Amino acid sequence: MIKRSHCVLLCLFLSASTAILSAQTFKVIQPPGSDPAYSAGILANSTLYVSGQGSSARDFTAQMAEAMHKVQQVLRGAGMDFANIAWMNIYVTDAHNLATMDDVYWRMIGSSPPARTVLTVAALPNGEMVEINCIAVTGMEREPIWPAGWPQGPRVDPPAIQVDDMLYMSAQGGNPGSDFSTETKQALDKVKTILNAAHMSMKNVLWVNPYMSVGGQYDVMGNVYKTYFEFGDTPGRGTIQVVGLPKGQHVVFSCIAGEDLGKRKAVRPRNMPPSPTASPGILYGDTLYLSAKSGFIPDQGIVTPQFDLQLRQSMRNLLDGLQEIDMDFSNVVFSTVYLRQIKDIGQVSELYNKFLKPPYPARSTLQQNSEPGVEAAEQISFIAVRRQPARTDEASR
């Protein structure tokens, strides 16, 4: 028979354990053989953030299949599978492999494909030819969003996937035969149409990646883009010039939106003035979507060509956004590092992990293009999640 005093102690221990578990909302998913320099996946509440998964196989078909299999391993480690993915990015280093990539993708993904963005980039770590990252959700129904009259059928990406109050959108582009300004407007009109089909508007957008396959058009894109959003309340954004886009497009927009405007808040550190084209970050509930940051000093721009100094300043700029809402690097769950030269990945790994401590966030690293002479040696974007506070009231009973 257990004595009453022992029972009381046991109850206190269990209550304290419950409080500790309730405070730990992040779970690292690390399949055997995955790189310990970052987490293969981070499960934050019901959302899984999966690092870029690549392959060392010899030919592209085998690399693509292995990358998909590695994504699946991470998903299964969190009790999920392909049908749980809401949002996926596929990076390919040779446009000639896009058809093969699609063949393998559609053979493996199953009958409930996610929203998807495909980009041709200059280089990936370790000479890989393909890398895949994604966001998946468990415990909630996924609903594909199809605006009226939009094509459906086999091998067609859903325009968007809605999970609860979150909307994850496939990259949307315009007619590549149009001038760049018109193509930008056509792409953004498609974004707006998808949002309307989900009973949302451009005000609901939290995070945007404008991807461009041409240089010298940043201001042209920005002049069109800013007419779709309210000054000072624009989404978080990372504008990335890549090597190529599918169908010969010159600009596409990949977005994440949230249905409840009461949960949406623009985050702007004091040293960053309001902008017509991007907020430093958007907080939606407990999740912060931070714009991509480079190594600029506010009001001065980029003042040094040295990679390590630029990276340190990028991390400082990102930390400013985190600290504005009482977060820090320990809250980061998903990171994308865009490099001007893939050879700098060693310095990234060395310096990056001086700022971030285990459990490291899920991470993807790529060289976006081969443009020489650009000041910014890197850009980094973050998604961060607020950890739930410990339930100390239970522990004290």
Indicate the topology.
Blueprint: H1 4-23, E1 26-29, E2 41-44, E3 47-53, H2 60-77, E4 85-92, H3 98-108, E5 115-120, E6 130-137, E7 142-145, E8 160-163, E9 166-169, E10 172-173, H4 180-197, E11 205-212, H5 218-225, E12 236-237, E13 240-241, E14 251-258, E15 264-267, E16 281-284, E17 287-293, H6 307-323, E18 332-339, H7 345-355, E19 362-367, E20 378-385, H8 392-395
Parallel strand pairs: 4-5, 11-12, 11-13, 18-19
Antiparallel strand pairs: 1-2, 2-3, 3-6, 4-6, 7-8, 8-9, 9-14, 10-14, 11-14, 15-16, 16-17, 17-20, 18-20
How would you describe the overall organization of this protein?
The protein is of the alpha+beta class and 397 residues long. Strands 7, 8, 9, 10, 11, 12, 13 and 14 form an eight-stranded mixed beta sheet that branches. The longest helix has 20 residues. It is globular. The N terminus and C terminus are likely disordered. It has a domain of 264 residues: RutC-like (60s Ribosomal Protein L30, Chain: A), CATH 3.30.1330.40. Helix content is 27%, strand content 27%. The protein is built from eight helices and 20 strands. Strand 18, helix 7 and strand 19 form a beta-alpha-beta unit. The two termini are 23 Å apart. Helix 2 packs parallel to helix 3, helix 4 packs parallel to helix 5 and helix 6 packs parallel to helix 7.
